[in-house]
Each structure stands twice: as structure tokens, then as C-alpha cells.
Amino acid sequence: MVGYQADKDRLLKRLSKIEGQVRGVSRMVEEERYCIDVLTQIGAIEAALDKVALGLLDDHTRHCVVEAEGGERTEKVDELMAALGRFVAR
Hints:
The chain has about 90 residues and is mostly helical. The chain has helices at about 10-30, 35-65, 70-90. The protein is elongated and about 55 Å long.
């Protein structure tokens, strides 16, 4: 069972909204909208994706890591730290 299972519908709804925002940016580029306006929308998309990622990290920590037993917990913590490293390195 994945940690986000209880929030799956909310997560999918948020991702659909982000998908719509990305399509909107594509339209803005096609319409040759002002650069700063396009960049502003890209920033909003990045912030929305960051929020999704932080939610997944929280769910992973609270469910997958906390509920793991013995040596599996160490493995889950290592996975979490690697994911965090990738997340903050970008």
C-alpha cells in the first residue's frame, strides 16, 4: 500500500489542474504573450509541483518510513534522504 492512497483523488485533481496550467503556458507561447507573463505562469506551475512533491514526501515519511520494521526502515529512510537530495538539488 502506498502512503498517498487515502489522498489519491485529491492528488489526481491537483495534478490535473497543473496539467491545465501547462497547456495554458503552451497557448501563451503560441500566442506570443509577454515573456514575463509566461515566466510567471511557469513559476506558478513549479510551486504547484513542489507542493505535490512535499505532500508525497510527507505521506512517504508518515506511512512508508514510520510503518516499516527493522532493516526495512533503514532502507526506507535511505530512499527518503535520496529523494530529498534530488528534490533540493534542482
